[in-house]
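Email to the structure team, subject: D-TA family PLP-dependent enzyme model.

Hi all, the expression group asked for a predicted structure before they design truncation constructs. Nothing fancy, just the tokens so they can compare against earlier work. One-line instruction: predict D-TA family PLP-dependent enzyme, return tokens.
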Amino acid sequence: MEWFRIDSTDDLVSPSLLVYPDRIRKNIELMIEIAGGTENLRPHIKTHKIEELVRIQQSYGIYKFKCATISEAELLGICEAEDVLIAMQPVGSQLKRYIELLKKYPKTKFSTLVDNEETLSQLVFLINQENKKVRIWLDINNGMNRTGIIPGEKAKELFLRMQENDAVISSGFHVYDGHIHIANEKHRKQKCDHDFQSVIDLKSELKNEGVNVNTIVAGGSITFPIHAQRAGVEVSPGTPVLWDAGYGNRYEDLNFLPAATLFTRVVSKPTEKTVCLDLGHKSVASEMAFPRVQFLGNIDISQLDQHEEHLVIEDTNEFEIGDGLYALPIHICPTVTKYGKVHVVENNKIRENWKVVARDHQLKI
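Reply from the structure team: attached below.
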């Protein structure tokens, strides 16, 4: 039987998200191999948000993690992860929530980012009230233009302020280059190295002033193998733990295995040329252009239209109403958050369910 199929779908609700632990483990092993061990590996959990997956990673000796939200950080605190970077600058109510996080989970060494003096001052003010210290990374924009401070004089001044403040433990630089989407491995490396040069230059300027930047957290799922070759750099891939068709089809040099599939059913055949599946916007990431998924089982079907609960595909005279299909999402990360739980498949059987704990914006804090 093909790896993705389960032996009986009679009681399986559609659509459902299925995950495959044997493939997940192989992906974790490959991440560790590429990173040269666990010391410089800091996987992002935003792709899966699942406690059992965190604990599988911990079983491999992974002790550093990266996340995006307070709820993801709280999940890692529940798992007693040793070292957690929240890679989104806290603002507004998140500032107080971050301080509460430090107090509630003292076994975990939390850190976060800043890219401006105002946020730094607010964090310092709040942490001083607790008579504690706060671990902070300088968030650098080296081309993504989403967050971060552009390397230069202002970035240097902000880092020096972090260094000089007694309430701050200055952890280093955080650099996410998610703007790099080049399929060719050689050209991707050239672009990555070019854009990272400004970070190296900033580090050198600080060193000339007697300030060392001990660690840089850099890269995402596509560039982390490149950054893994640099000394003093931790890498933070996220998607490889589950992988998806979008990355798998584009980046052939990254040999991760698809470890999550969608199960969907034919619910209607409205015309002679179309079939409708129960796989709408609410069930699979839909922020990109078609196709939304890649069907498995040697099925190549044009995807024509999508609505909240429906995906309309071309009729190839292969399907009857009620038939089940398996598909890889093009983008796994926002697909996972659409499900409260995932079904765990081993040896073509559903063995248990895992709750997607941190899909909620708030757990307890």
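The mean pLDDT is 97. The domain at 259-355 is CATH 2.40.37.20 (Lyase, Ornithine Decarboxylase; Chain A, domain 1). Ping us if the truncation boundaries need rechecking.
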